């Protein structure tokens, strides 16, 4: 028989477990709602990518949004329930009825959320696909080593521009887009004057995005190898590997064999996601990324905006590189990746106009459209243009949370595509194609003849050979690519015992982040890091990125000093930001010896009513994390 004391302990323990269960259910329900809101038109393929992708190198603003929209309301509801239970308990009422009733309601709400999410993402088909082995890739894959690929005597140069998140969707409805007003009129004109494989149709046409190509590294891999980047590790964990699909032949391999000089230019860090590894291994590209720009004094040592440096600079650097390449005694391939149009909302540079009012993403897209057009016009004025093919392609569909939320479900979204100055002409029939088809089509545009007109999973769109999508249909192709492929796994040769991979998977840090109230007498914010846990022996320091403006144009990096007790702190002088009132963002990063930086956490702070009005001042910025 239980004593009264034991009974109270059992009841208390049961109540705590019940509350934790209810709280978890509520949090999961809010999380599902937030997920579908944050990633509009989310597919299960993209969901798996987001769940696997590491935090380093990504924009962490959404973490704050999650805490605000999911964790905060969950805690408020949980506290209200706890207060009701406590009140009933004091009154001697049977609070278990409320607790059980609340749990049932929460569980029903969660089941509804799961059912709705499952239908939206078609999870059941995905799970069945993972359980079902497919030989689709093995059956349709054309190994470039096994077909004749013949280059013309006068080899064409190649300029391949990957446009971050660029879709044909952004054009107006009169041109095949989904918007009332054309956000990308210059890109629309470029596609219509050149080749997007729309045949006699006046509407824009673009590539469909298949599973395994829905994020940047997957997209670049798919368009240059004709394969999906469906791998057994996190989608952006390829930088932990020593090899990147060593068993394949990609576009860069073919061009290298033909004596091409190859360059990859991008305004972010190339290591992220395995981009540097891939382009080094498959084509020995010269990598000119954000780190290269810093090390070669292209930008100031303290310069950092958005993901590194903006597209305005990328296009200017590319012009200089093209002049150098055109003076060499060999054909060249310059591959570029833009970044300003990355979700969420993009980066507004000084060239961006306020054409679409408060819709920042539309303004950024419009700005990108103009910059690309001016860059192409510059190329066309150069002597080397007559022997140069230009490919412009969106990498993947945008992951922005709300830019495409009002588009009709029946509208089929495609990435922007155009081929300029091609050596071959396309037919008059509109093609249905995927981004895999870019692999052989790019070579064909350069005047290359391909035996059978197919490479990888792609088809030469300048030929009359039907694409896989035209042969079997979009739905079936997606379904097959969602299934497991032993053939693809064998090509990937993933080393799941890689020390770097194991280290990353186990690499977590936790700490208490404290932000003191703004001190008006000193115009400062004091930040403190305590109870730091993790591999602390590897820590070289802690830095905090601070900014107020949405486009991070005022971003400053502040070093935190280490305290005797093992914590870290910094007094941030807000004069550096001109004492502007409002909400400031603070992102904390662990700087580690001989390793990538690790994201620690985020916070916000309010600056208000400074006692001293001073002119906006500046201080030397230190780039301490990238």
Description:
The strands form four sheets. The chain has a seven-stranded antiparallel sheet with strand order 11-12-15-14-13-16-17, covered by helices on one side. It has a six-stranded mixed sheet with strand order 4-3-5-2-6-7, with helices on both faces. A two-stranded antiparallel ribbon has the order 1-8. The chain is built from 18 helices and 17 strands. With 626 residues, it is α+β, with helices and mostly antiparallel strands. 36% of the residues lie in helices and 16% in strands. Mean pLDDT is 83; it is low at 49-60 and 611-626. The longest helix has 35 residues, at 4-38. Helix 1 (4-38) runs parallel beside helix 4, helix 7 (185-193) packs across helix 13 (360-380) and helix 12 (311-326) runs parallel beside helix 13.
């Amino acid at each position: 028989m239980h004593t009264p004391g034991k009974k109270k302990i059992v009841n208390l323990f049961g109540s705590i477990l019940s509350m934790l269960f209810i709280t978890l259910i509520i949090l999961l329900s809010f999380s599902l709602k937030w997920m579908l809101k944050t990633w509009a038109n989310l597919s299960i393929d993209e969901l798996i990518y987001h769940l696997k992708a590491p935090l380093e190198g990504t924009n962490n603003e959404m973490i704050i949004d999650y805490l605000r929209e999911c964790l905060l309301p969950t805690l408020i509801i949980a506290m209200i329930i706890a207060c009701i239970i406590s009140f009933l308990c004091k009154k001697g009422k049977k609070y278990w009825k409320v607790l059980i009733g609340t749990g049932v309601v929460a569980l029903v709400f969660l089941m509804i959320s799961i059912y709705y999410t499952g239908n939206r993402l078609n999870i059941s088909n995905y799970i069945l696909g993972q359980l079902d082995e497919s030989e689709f890739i093995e059956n349709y894959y054309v190994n470039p080593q096994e077909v004749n690929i013949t280059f013309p005597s006068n080899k064409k140069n190649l300029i391949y521009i990957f446009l971050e998140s660029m879709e044909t969707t952004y054009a107006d409805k009169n041109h095949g887009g989904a918007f009332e007003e054309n956000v990308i009129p210059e890109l629309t004109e470029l596609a219509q004057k050149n080749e997007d494989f729309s045949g006699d149709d006046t509407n824009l046409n673009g590539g469909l995005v298949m599973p395994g190509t829905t994020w940047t590294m997957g997209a670049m891999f798919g368009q240059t190898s004709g394969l999906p980047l469906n791998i057994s590790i996190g989608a952006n964990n390829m930088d932990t590997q020593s090899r990147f699909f060593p068993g394949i032949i990609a576009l860069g391999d073919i061009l290298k064999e033909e004596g091409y000089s190859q360059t990859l230019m991008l305004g972010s860090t190339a290591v992220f996601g395995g981009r540097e590894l891939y382009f080094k291994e498959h084509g020995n590209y010269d990598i000119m990324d954000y780190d290269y720009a810093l090390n070669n004094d292209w930008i100031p040592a303290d310069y950092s905006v958005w993901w590194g440096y903006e597209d305005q600079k990328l296009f200017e650097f590319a012009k200089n590189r093209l002049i150098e390449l055109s003076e060499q005694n060999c054909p060249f391939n310059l591959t570029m990746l833009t970044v300003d149009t990355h979700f969420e909302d993009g980066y507004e540079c000084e060239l961006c106009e306020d054409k679409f009012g408060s819709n920042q993403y539309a303004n950024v897209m419009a700005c990108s459209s103009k910059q690309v057009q001016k860059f192409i016009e510059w190329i066309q004025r150069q002597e080397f243009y007559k022997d140069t093919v230009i490919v412009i392609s969106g990498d993947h569909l945008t992951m922005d949370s709300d830019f495409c939320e009002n588009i009709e479900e029946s509208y089929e979204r495609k990435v922007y595509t155009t081929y300029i100055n091609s050596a071959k002409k396309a037919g008059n029939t509109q093609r249905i194609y995927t981004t895999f088809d870019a692999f052989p089509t790019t070579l064909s545009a350069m005047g290359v003849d391909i035996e059978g007109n197919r490479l990888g999973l792609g088809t030469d769109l300048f030929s009359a050979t039907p694409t896989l999508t035209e042969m079997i249909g979009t739905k079936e192709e997606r379904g097959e690519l969602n299934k497991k492929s032993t053939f693809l796994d064998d090509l990937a040769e993933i080393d799941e015992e890689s020390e770097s991979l194991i280290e990353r998977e186990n690499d977590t840090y936790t700490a208490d982040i404290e932000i003191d109230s703004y001190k008006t007498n000193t115009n400062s914010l004091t930040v403190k890091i305590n109870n730091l846990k993790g591999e602390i022996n590897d820590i070289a320091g802690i830095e905090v990125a601070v900014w107020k403006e949405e486009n991070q144009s005022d971003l400053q990096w502040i070093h935190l000093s280490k305290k005797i007790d093992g914590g870290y702190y910094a007094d941030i002088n807000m004069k550096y930001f001109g004492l502007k009132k409002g909400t400031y963002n603070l992102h904390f990063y662990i700087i580690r010896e001989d390793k990538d930086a690790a994201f620690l956490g985020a916070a916000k702070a309010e600056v208000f009513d400074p006692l001293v009005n001073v002119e906006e001042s500046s201080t030397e910025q230190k780039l301490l994390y990238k």
